[in-house]
Design brief:
The protein is an alpha/beta fold. The chain has eight helices and seven strands, in the order E-H-E-H-E-H-E-H-E-H-E-H-H-H-E.
Length: about 270
């Protein structure tokens, strides 16, 4: 087994499912001590036990990513248990609910901003003192293809994901003198809880079975992707593992688009 991350401490936010969980599992498999933050403590505990059975080291960090005090507690707990923090993956996020521009309420905008942007601000602020003591010093922000090519829905989500790219660029410049590297990954369409939630929503709104809706949407999405397949959390995790490695020591302020060729712009 490749244990290239032996001794490295990695904190992943929104790690109880989807892309966050895939990233956490990837780093644990590579030998890192991984902190998984999320709201669902019971699920986090199950994941920690599962990672342990596979020979990995992981810590459950239950809490609210939109609350600064809660984030500080999670970071402090992980740093105390693991002996520090070397890599932060700001992954937690999503829309407060699916809506077009006129359907999205003020609360939708505020809640989504808190979840996608302020969570990254809180975690980055809390982790910085630990990164300054680390030889690795990495921050990765998980944004979205919709940050640069928004669709017809969820402007409150796509706008905040674009804000994450701006934050990435700012932090990369601000922290460069301290050799803290900051990059972003923009995933395209991947199988995840969010994908399944969207299928359920469309199934209900159209009055069509889940199976038929899933087949239709999957076919439509694949037609938009030159490689002809929808991605997985592992595709994003592999990119994260590279960007947090020593091989990426001269990369900062960069945005990596991982989408099977779906994005048409430069």
């Amino acid at each position: 087994m490749n244990r290239s991350y032996e001794g490295v401490r990695v904190l992943v936010t929104g790690a109880s499912a989807g892309i966050g969980l895939a990233i956490a599992r990837k780093f644990a498999c590579l030998g890192a001590a991984v902190g998984l933050s999320g709201r669902r403590q019971g699920l986090l505990n199950e994941i920690i036990v599962d990672i342990g059975r596979e020979g990995g080291t992981a810590f459950a960090l239950p809490g609210d990513a939109t609350d600064g005090a809660s984030v500080q507690q999670m970071v402090s707990h992980f740093a105390a248990q693991a002996g520090g923090v070397d890599v932060l993956i700001n992954n937690v996020g999503g829309p407060s609910r699916y809506a077009n521009f006129e359907e999205a309420t003020d609360d939708d905008w505020k809640n989504t901003f808190e979840l996608n942007v302020m969570s990254s601000v809180f975690f980055t602020r809390a982790v910085l003192p630990h990164l300054r003591q680390s030889p690795r010093r990495r921050i990765l922000n998980i944004s979205s293809i919709s940050a640069v090519e928004p669709g017809a829905y969820n402007p409150h989500y796509t706008t905040t994901k674009a804000a994450m790219l701006n934050l990435t660029k700012y932090l990369a410049n601000y922290l460069a003198p301290e050799k803290i590297l900051v990059n972003a990954i923009c995933p395209g369409t991947v199988y995840s809880e969010s994908w399944e939630e969207n299928i359920r929503r469309l199934s209900e709104s159209r009055g069509v079975s889940l199976e038929k809706t899933a087949a239709i949407i999957e076919r439509q999405e694949m037609a938009k992707i030159p490689l002809g397949q929808i991605g997985s959390g592992n595709d994003i995790a592999n990119t994260a593992a590279f960007l947090a490695s020593e091989e990426a020591s001269w990369i900062t302020g960069s945005i990596f688009h991982v989408n099977g060729g779906k994005m048409r712009s430069f």
